Amino acid sequence: MSENKIKKSSMAKRSLKKFTANKLAMFGLIVVVIYIFLSIFAPFITSYDPNLTDLSSMNKLPGGEHILGTDSLGRDLFTRLVYGGRISIMIGIFSAILTSVIGTCLGLIAGYFGGKIDSLLVRISEILMAFPMTILVMLLATIVGAGVKNLILIFCFVGWMTVFRIVRNEVMRIREETYVDVSKAFGAPSASIMFKDILPNTLSPIIVATTINVAFFILQETVLSFLGLGVPTNVATWGTIINAAKSITVIQNQWWLWVIPGACISIFVMSINFLGDGLRDVLDPRV
């Protein structure tokens, strides 16, 4: 085995050891894996239909056949949470990945070429960041309408700026390195230099930002669906579950319909943040 491979293997082992030693990061990873497992295998975990009403089982307390209780239409809350996790987590993951791809490509272009292209992209990002994110998302959701696809498109439109700025700053630093100048001297195309030479050295902050954005977009979906601007109420998501429990009657008399979903969302978002912090400690050489 070459010396370079030995060094890489040793660094990978050190990084893995450092990550596993971080108790909060490991807790976050375990919780995230459990949530995703429950969401993927929901049909095998519960036999109830998340949208099937059962008037004979309305507002049952947690316990017995319904371990987390039922809502005012007799729908099993546990079933709605695991099925709702499918949509909410999917929205978070897809939105985070797409915004990272957009932000990375634009950041590479702006940081590598500079000049007018850089100025234009920076100004566009500054204009979008001048608006409060939640207000801008609500405005766009009102214009384009509710729906899973529409939400993902909105999040992609307003969420690429963070990754863009991270990548742009890294590229502006890396483009002055000797190996980039050597590639230019040998006549390598700009696209090849950006994606083969520069991009691999910016992946660490991109991965961390993507992880944290998953939690952010899940919270945004929850807020929008709670306000009736996100996913339609007939689709089970964490946001629509909270939306169905926002009346004063439910808050006063059916505590499990808002306490349990709220705790479920909070634990998952907190776990994602713990995982992101752990990845940052391992992947970011400045930490």
Description:
- Helix 1 packs antiparallel against helix 14, helix 4 runs parallel beside helix 8 and helix 6 packs antiparallel against helix 7.
- The radius of gyration is 23 Å and the shape is elongated.
- The chain is mainly α.
- The chain is built from 14 helices and no strands.
- The longest helix is centred in the N-terminal third of the chain and has 37 residues, at 77-113.
Please summarize what this structure is.
This protein is mainly alpha-helical.
In angstroms, what is the radius of gyration?
A: 23 Å
Structural class, by secondary structure, is: mainly alpha
Report the end-to-end length measured between terminal Cα atoms.
Answer: 30 Å
Give the overall form. elongated
Topology summary:
Blueprint: H1 3-21, H2 23-40, H3 42-45, H4 77-113, H5 115-130, H6 133-144, H7 148-159, H8 161-174, H9 178-185, H10 190-198, H11 203-226, H12 238-243, H13 248-253, H14 256-283
Search tags:
287 residues, mainly alpha, 74% helix
